[in-house]
Design brief:
Largest sheet: 8 strands, parallel
Shape: globular
Structural class: alpha/beta
Distance between the termini: 22 Å
Number of strands: 8
Radius of gyration: 20 Å
Helix content: 40-55%
Strand order of the largest sheet: 1-2-3-4-5-6-7-8
Strand content: 5-15%
Order of helices and strands: HEHHHEHEHEHEHHHEHHEHHEH
Number of helices: 15
């Protein structure tokens, strides 16, 4: 109870923040394995992403908890290092199950289910007396019907606020085989979050022309899959078929959005006979259906250029702050942005996420 009151006191000072990309990790593979049934329990090795790993370090070096365990494994330390210093009101957790690269849909679904049970029991359960942690329902999109059942299983939980998947896929996300997932999301008012990972790995296609050689190439080009998925959502008419369905693009970059929408709006003028279900310009769907998280925020030498870009993309209404804690490229709430107009800052750091997730 003392900790709860302390958190409330901290939140009452300074700028309120909702952080839309915080990564929790299990202390060991056995922690996830304990939520699995056989034959998956003996089979699971927790293999991670596979390749294109950071050649130096993937986590902040100071994010290792003093009591042991890896970065992002101790909810109390996350409170001490991230939530209290910056005044976070909520942290939206994005577990990294990496199940979307597997060819066996039953195995992938079992991993997703185990991660959801682990998250509900730990970060959203016994370590969440103040409700500051909000969770994401991990799904294996290889089997959209099983993914929809997993959404149904957790939709009534008070702290799961969205459904999440990797950007890695066998087909663009606007295509109809994914519709059972979107139907379940719309039914329960849960946004569909896309996070980088497993692109070109396992069963998934690579969004670039072939495989990059280096991590720096892969990491710089993470936005490619996000652009393809967004164009697919729009041109396939997903937002017309599911008018209550919303998506959030997490860690896919930001500055590409204005140019992409300009190009797509221009194409739409000449080619809309091909997509008659689109009743308005692609860019007009954005405010109602799409949100983007800020990290990684491309930062030019001239802050004025960044402010112009934020205005071009209507950041005041569609951008939400994310730190990507505890990863190496963490964005501090104090330093990620130049000085913003007060109204834009309030919406990016707090109000957009509060409205979007109904917090």
């Amino acid at each position: 109870m003392e900790q709860v009151e302390e958190m409330k006191a901290t939140r009452s000072t300074g700028r309120a923040i909702i952080d839309c990309d915080v990564h929790p990790y299990p202390k060991s593979v056995d922690e996830i394995r304990s939520y699995m049934q056989e034959p998956w329990k003996s089979r699971y090795r927790g293999s991670g992403r596979g390749f294109f790993d950071n050649p130096v370090h993937g986590m902040r070096l100071d994010a290792t908890p003093p009591n042991g365990g890896g970065a992002g494994t101790d909810p109390d330390f996350v409170r001490e290092q991230l939530l209290k210093p910056f005044g976070h009101e909520y942290a939206v957790l994005m577990p990294r199950a990496f199940c979307n690269l597997l060819p066996d849909p039953d195995y992938a679904t079992a991993i997703a289910a185990a991660y959801n049970e682990w998250l509900a029991d730990t970060w959203l359960g016994k370590h969440n007396a103040d409700g500051v942690f909000k969770g994401s329902i991990t799904i294996a999109h290889q089997d959209p019907h099983a993914a929809a059942r997993e959404i149904e299983r957790w939709a009534g939980h008070p702290h799961f606020v969205q459904v999440m998947t990797d950007s890695g896929a066998r087909a663009p996300f606007g295509q109809r085989q994914y519709y059972p997932i979107y139907e379940a999301c719309e039914k329960h008012g849960l946004p569909f979050a896309i996070h980088p990972g497993t692109d070109g790995m396992g069963i998934n296609v690579q969004p670039s022309p072939g495989y990059p050689t280096h991590y720096i190439e892969w990491h710089t080009c993470l936005s490619l899959a996000f652009q393809a998925h967004l164009v697919s959502f729009l041109t396939e008419g997903v937002f017309e078929r599911f008018p209550g369905f919303k998506i959030v693009l997490v860690e896919g970059g930001v500055s590409w959005l204005p140019g992409l929408m300009w190009r797509l709006d221009q194409e739409y003028k000449a080619l809309r006979y091909e997509v008659p279900w689109m009743t308005k310009r692609p860019s007009e769907y954005l405010r109602d259906h799409v949100r983007i998280s800020s990290q990684p925020l491309e930062r030019p030498d001239d802050d004025g250029h960044l402010l112009q870009m934020l205005t071009m993309m209507d950041a005041e209404h569609i951008l939400m702050f994310a730190s990507d804690y505890p990863h190496w490229d963490f964005d501090s709430p104090k330093h990620a942005f130049p000085k913003l107009p007060d109204a834009m800052a309030r919406r990016i750091f707090y109000e957009n996420a509060k409205e979007f997730y109904k917090l």
